[in-house]
Amino acid sequence: MKYFLIAGEASGDLLGSMLMQALKKYDKSSDFRYWGGDKMIEQGGNCTRHISKLSIMGFTQVLVNLPVIIRNFKQIRKELKDYKPDVLILIDFPGFNLRVAKIAKNLGIEVSFYVSPTVWAWHESRVKTIKKYVDSLFVLLPFEKEFYKKHNYDVIYEGHPIIDSIKKEKEAIPEFEEFITQSGLNDKAIIALLPGSRLQEVKRILPVMVKIVSSFPDFQFVVAATSLLPESVYNSICEDYNVVVLYDKTSSLQKHAHTALVTSGTATLETALFNTPEVVCYKTGKLSFSLAKFLVNIKFISLVNLIMQKEIVKELIQSEFTVENLETELGELVNDSTYRGAIMKNYLHLHDKLGDEGVSDRIAIRIVNSIKS
């Protein structure tokens, strides 16, 4: 059977690759075409658009890139008509993918959406769009099933696939001594800096992170960089600070770090599942933040706190994300054992909420059976 997948960001690329691997187990004749990243490419098939050309965030960035976005919609319509997939699997990236869902349904293509848009946080009216154009919605957060139940829409919760990816990552990560030798690090405890994978995030967040380095001389600071961005981006920010920049070693850093400063996103949840205490950081453009503040109705932005429905890790957002506040929060995390212990205890409860292993397999079986029926 033929599968068309669309992932627009690094986290979606990971989910897409795991799902493709599972689909191949339950459909030996599976054929893939997709818009995705390097991890999906490793699974084979035909990648016709790389995520590095898709990630656009912020209201003003959308306006600037509007011609590109319009061309993308024209291209995806053509590809869907030419390829005629048995199912279109849309992975997160809702601003783009919900519009693609409409295109696909008008072409008579079955649509599965993997990762619910945050309709429970803002723009709840999008539920109507989802019900109209999405045949099956696979949610990753336990409270989302109850949310959609209120809207008379039956969604599928099989657990969070991050459980499987973290298990796989842990098995491949070298021990601390081997890791620091391979990476050219010393034996000081590591503070990991995770500034995100998108250019705008890195440019806004990393400059604040690196300014606290001199206040913690007993630690070595290591930036989790991505090869999807040019080295010049990191060099221009980090050249005057005593930090090490490591490319594509995020999981190793999350496992071996004493503490981490993490940009809000999937990485906050990954860091928690590696049992590493963290401070969540986020900052966007003033216009985008003003619009979000007006529209969004949630207490927290990190996945860790959202799933637990309480603050178990500190969030420094927008105006609160300052050098002074970051120094204070990191200082408490590295010096207060009681504080660290409370976070670690809550991490155990977080594990329990995310379900059992084998999530990608269970979702793949559902998709394959749906097509067959």
Please, could you describe this protein's structure?
This protein has helices at about 10-25, 40, 60-65, 65-85, 95-105, 125-135, 145-150, 160-170, 175-185, 200-210, 230-240, 250-255, 265-275, 285-295, 305-310, 325-335, 335-355, 360-370; strands at about 1-5, 30-35, 45-50, 85-90, 110-115, 135-140, 155, 190-195, 220-225, 245, 260-265, 280, 315. By secondary structure, the chain is α/β, with parallel strands linked by helices. The chain folds into two domains: about 1-160 and about 360-370, Rossmann fold (3-Layer(aba) Sandwich); about 165-355, Rossmann fold. Strands 3-2-1-4-5-6-7 form a seven-stranded parallel sheet, with helices on both faces. Strands 10-9-8-11-12-13 form a six-stranded parallel sheet, with helices on both faces. It is globular and about 60 Å long. The protein starts with a strand and ends with a helix. Mean pLDDT is about 90; it is low at about 55-60.
List keywords for this structure.
373 residues, alpha/beta, Rossmann fold, seven-stranded parallel sheet, 18 helices, 50% helix, 17% strand
| Arithmetic mean of pLDDT | 91
Whole-number count of domains: 2
Q: Give the overall form.
A: globular
Distance between the termini: 13 Å
Structural class of the secondary structure composition?
alpha/beta
**Count of alpha/pi helices:** 18
Task: Spell out the CATH superfamily of the largest domain.
Answer: Glycogen Phosphorylase B
CATH class of the largest domain: Alpha Beta
Number of strands: 13
Q: Strand order, main sheet: write it out.
A: 3-2-1-4-5-6-7
CATH topological fold name of the largest domain: Rossmann fold
Over all CA atoms, what is the radius of gyration? Answer: 21 Å
Percent helix range: 40-55%
